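Materials and Methods. Structural model of Glycosyl hydrolase. The 509-residue sequence of Glycosyl hydrolase from Kockovaella imperatae was retrieved and submitted for structure prediction as follows.
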Amino acid sequence: MMRSTHLLEQSIHGDYTGRYRPQVHFSPPKGFMNDPNGLFVDKHGIWHLYYQYNPTELVAGNQHWGHATSRDLYHWANQPIALFPPDERTGVFSGSAVIDAKNTSGFFPDQDDGVVAIYTLNTPENQVQAIAYSRDGGYTFTPYEGNPVIDIQSNQFRDPKVVWYEDHWVMVIAHSTEFKIGIYTSRDLKTWSPSSSVSYLGILGLQYECPNLVPIPVKANGSSTGEQVWTLFISINPGAPLGGATMLYFPGDFDGYSFVPHDSAARLADFAKDNYAAQFFDGTAPGEAVSIAWANNWQYTNVLPTANEGWRSIMSLPRKNFLTRLERTGWALVSEPYDLSPILNSRLSHDTDFVNKTTDVDFSSAGSGAIYFSIKLPDSQARYGDEAAFSFAVSAPSSKESVKGGYMFGGPNAGHAWLDRGNTKGFGSDNPFWNDRFSVAQVSAARSIWGVIDRSVLELFIDDGAYSATMLFFSEEPLTLLRIGTEGMPEGTSIELEVHDLHSVWRNS
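The predicted structure was written out as C-alpha cells:
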C-alpha cells in the first residue's frame, strides 16, 4: 500500500554508519533502490542522479524516482523525491532525462536549462511512456497534461532513453519480451514516431531492459583519437551467463534513425555478477561519456542482509567510458572510475619495486573501511614464467573471512583475472544464485590492475578498465587487513604498488 505522498516531500535522511553501508558508493537514505534514471549534469556542474525507489519498503515495488545531487559524483546530497506515482496501481518505472536547451518542447519559453524527464508508467495491464518537465533545474517536476506520449497497448514496453541527434530527439526503448529495441524520433519530446528497430542481438536471456544509445569516444594506445562511435547498451534479465542480470554493448553506426552494429559479437560490460542497467549522463562535455550502474542482481537483491540497516542496494562507482580495439577481440569498452581524487585519503603503502614481494596493510583505523589499491607494470614485453602472478586478499583477522582476487601472468591460465567471495559468512551460503567465483581472460598481459574495496562491494579494473568487475560481498565481521603480493615475476620487471584509504563521503549525513 502506498503511503500518502505528502509525508515524503522533504529530503529523506539516512543512517550511513552501518557495517555494510558503502562509504564511497551511492546508496539510498533508506528503503529500496534499483536502476539509475534520468542522469544529467547541469550548467552549474551539478550532477543529478535519479533512481528507481521504494521509500516505504525494503523490496522492489511502489516505484518512485528518488533524487540525489553531487558536485564530484562521490559526495551526494539526498534530495526530495522527484517523481511520484499518479495512483496506487501505477509505478514510475525507469527512464531518462534531458536538458531542453533549445526549448523544443515549448515548456521553457524563457530559459535554456529546462529539464524533461521521460519515463515508463507501469500498471499490471499496460506500460506507457510519459514525460514531465522541470523549470527549477530538475528538483520538482510537472507531469505533461497530454500524457501518455507513447502507448502501443503493451505491458512489456519500457525504459526510454532519449538523446539529441543533430536536429531531433531520439529514443531507444525496450520491447522487452520481443528481444527488440525500438527507435523513435521527435522534434518536441511530445510527439514520437517509430523509426526503426534492432532485434535478437547478443545473449537474449528472457527479456531486454534499460537500453542506452550514446556516442562513446575512442582511444588508441591510451590517447583520444577524436572519433566517437555510437554504442547500443542492452541489459538482460534473467538469463545472464552467470545467472540473473547483466549488460551487453554493441558498437555500431547510427544515422539518427537506424542503428547497425559493427559486428555480431556479444560483449559483456562486466565479468562479475553485480552490474546492471547502467545509464549515461546527459549534458556532459563533448567527447565525454560518464555512466553509473546499479550494483546488484535481481536474483538476490530482495533478500540481501542490508535490510537490517534499513536500506537495500547501491550504485557502482561513476565511470568514464571509452572504446578501444584490443588484440584479436576487436572493440572493447574501457570503463574506468571517474576522477578518484575527491575520495583518496592517506597513502597506506607505496613501493616502486614491488617485485616478488608480499605486504600486509592494516586499515582498521581508517574510519571509512574503504581502500583503493593499484599495481602498474609498464613493461608489456616481459616474458613470464608459469608461476608469475599477482594476488590480493582482504580479510577479517578474527573470523578469518576473506575476499580474494588475482591475476595470472604465466602458465596455462595466463591472462586470467579472478575473484572469490566464497569465504564470507554474512550471506550466500543458503542462496543457490550467489555464485562465489568469477574470472575473465585477455589476450595480452595486463599493464595495470586497480581495485576499490568499500565495506560490502569490490570493483576491479584491469588495464584502466578494459575489463572490469563489480562484486558484492557480506562478511560477518568487517574486513580490515589487505594482503597483496606478486610472485614468480622475472628479474628486471618494473612493478609499482599504491594503496590508499578512502574518505567517507557520508561522514556528515
